Amino acid sequence: MNVHDSEKMSGALKSEGYIETDDPKGADIIIFNTCSIREKAEQKFFSKLGRLKSLKKRKPSLKIAVAGCIAQQEREKIFQRTPYIDCVIGPQNLHLLAGLTRIQGHAVACDENPSLAEADFDIDRKDRIKAWVTIMYGCDNYCSYCIVPYTRGREKSRPSEKIISEIEGLAREGFKEITLLGQNVNSYRSDIDFTGLLQRINNISGIERIRFVTSHPKDISVDLIFAMRNLHKVCQHIHLPLQSGSSRILHLMNRKYSYEDYLRKIEILRNVMPDISITSDIIAGFPQETDKDHSLTIRGLKEIAFDGIFAFNYSPRVGTRAAELSGHVEDDVKSERLYEILDVQNAITDMKNKALVDTIQEVLLEPSGIKGNSKLTGRTRSNKIVNMPVYVQPGSSDLVRVRIVKAHRHSLDGIIQK
Ligand code: 5AD
Ligand code: SF4
Known about the structure:
- The chain is α/β, with parallel strands linked by helices.
- About 35% of the residues lie in helices and about 20% in strands.
- The chain contains 15 helices and 17 strands.
- Helix 9 (about 195-200) runs parallel beside helix 10 (about 220-230) and helix 13 packs parallel to helix 14.
- Bound molecules: 5'-deoxyadenosine and iron/sulfur cluster (SF4).
């Protein structure tokens, strides 16, 4: 989502005549697009920002803007700590960026924006084949650990006709893969629901693959599961964050499902689509998590056997309910649990990838792969990375059939089939 927000900010400035540079010393404006989901991301930003202080001293006309979730949280407070910042712009106000950079002195745009879903953006897309498309903004779920509802605001769905016409435009430009973006895409609602939206997009000619992130386990319906199977452009991959294998912890997290509820959804998904790839997010060391709770997460990982996970140490976020809970887990205990989670999952990921050896997969080549001047690389429909030797030229299509010949933990090796 942040990467796509950057494409929107870049588009806004390019339409004002700005050009992009890799050299901070030559820049008139430097924008930090920040993330505050965990403390580490925040620390990274403040240390990078500190390095620009001297640059600003030497070139006072340089504008430094802070965008994203740290901007939204800190608002004008950020000027006290780092007065050399010029603009602070929250994720709901990206359309104001160009105007903001023209203001002399400190400028702030962090108000809740009720008409965000109606906004149109000039998007400076960095990829020519795959495109992100926002279908909804914000989140109303208030998982107790999560800062997103406070920074990205209330859930708002974009009108379906705006989404459809954006994707039709992308198809005309030659894009092949669309990833629909929202914090909780399954609760998309406009004149149609999420399943209806997938059906409409499936009919757009030129688009070959449809993906979506992120799904909330409580909202994934049987309807959607059958649509994933029946709509041939929808990739059979779902990112479905579990967060914990302990129903007690899930309750404290305000996730609104038990481990058993989650498991039932997985069973339906796999009954309907035996080859579906399922990935997840896990949090280690949520407040009050005991060794028993942790062992339930380990049991869950083994029982479910995800294709891959992202796992994180719990990071307290000021203003969230979990931060106020008693019984915070020591950092070294969190890390120990995280290592065990990753260890268990690594073995499962290896096994899942090995099972793909000798299968034929459809791979969408990355643009660098199509040129064939370095290695060929692309992704399967299940979103796994495949590397292919350069001596096999793929021809004119960017969709190729590939025999998997070797499995690694984070990628597969393959040979393009004639
Ligand atoms: N601490 C650790 N992980 C978090 N996530 C969200 N908030 C926190 C937090 N405070 C994780 C969740 C979510 C993913 C995007 O980030 O697992 O699914
Ligand atoms: Fe955060 Fe929960 Fe919303 Fe995801 S669903 S963005 S974890 S509050």
